[in-house]
Amino acid sequence: MASETLLHIPDGTRFGYHTGLPWKRAAQCLVKVAGDIEAGTGLHLLVAPNGTGKTTLLRTLAGLSPALRGHVTTAARVHYFADELRVDPEMKSRTVFRSWFKGESLVSAETLADTLRLNLTAPIGKLSRGNRQKVLLILAEVKVAQSATSVLLMDEPLTGLDAETREQMTQLWAAAGTRTMRLVIMHELECVRDADSLMTIASGQLHHVTERSGGTWMETYRTLQS
């Protein structure tokens, strides 16, 4: 790849979980890797049907779960954001941002909140799913901006957002510069014009392509799944 490799998943790596009693554990493999996978800075999409192991894969890359086989390597600080914001529902968005950020970072968070039309004074518990996602997206973007180089892993961050906000976020990702590698689980491929690669899980195997096989990433995904 042209950019420095920030994520390396070696051939033969397996992702999954263990079941059964502690003294009789059985490995349940969800995803196998055939061929080395490397990714650098930019936007990388992880798209696959429900139940195929996307979240398990992402949590393993984040270091929250062990791989069943193999060792994943990351060459930058890893930030993982799950699919739901989990904070006290009585907290306000402004309070969340002030607990995470200070100075210029806090200004950046509040500026992005204004751009995305997020109400900073409403309790988190009273926000819609889409507005809670905006809080997550703002936390992620400002957090990675604080690091020289980052690997940002996000689990369906565009779910619940309106079409205009999805467009705003994908444009922001495309224009965000080269310091961050974003690996994003998503289904809203119709709003993505610019991405550096696509990963998908088909028949239990992780596929990775860096060029579109059709006119859009959606067509590429359908080709890989067929």
Number of helices: 6
What is the rounded distance between the termini? 26 Å
**CATH homolog superfamily:** P-loop containing nucleotide triphosphate hydrolases
Strand count: 11
Largest β sheet strand count, sense and barrel closure: 8 strands, mixed
- Net shape: globular
Structural class: alpha/beta
Can you tell me the number of structural domains? 1
Please tell me the CATH architecture by its name: 3-Layer(aba) Sandwich
Helix content: 25-40%
Average pLDDT score: 91
State which percent range the strand residues make up: 15-25%
pLDDT < 50 runs, ≥5 residues:
none
* H-E string: EEEEEHEEHHHEHEEEH
Tell me the radius of gyration.
18 Å
- What is the top-level CATH class? Alpha Beta
Please name the CATH topology.
Answer: Rossmann fold
Strand order of the largest sheet: 2-3-11-10-5-9-8-7
Written account of the structure:
By secondary structure, this protein is α/β, with parallel strands linked by helices. It has one domain: 3-Layer(aba) Sandwich (Rossmann fold). It contains six helices and eleven strands. The strands form two sheets. The chain has an eight-stranded mixed β-sheet, with helices on both faces. Strands 4-1-6 form a three-stranded antiparallel β-sheet, with no helix packed on it. β8 (150-155), α5 (163-174) and β9 (180-185) form a beta-alpha-beta unit.
Structure in a nutshell:
The chain has helices at residues 54-61, 93-100, 103-115, 129-145, 163-174, 217-225, and strands at 7-9, 14-19, 26-33, 37-39, 42-46, 73-74, 77-81, 150-155, 180-185, 197-202, 205-209. With 226 residues, the protein is an alpha/beta fold.
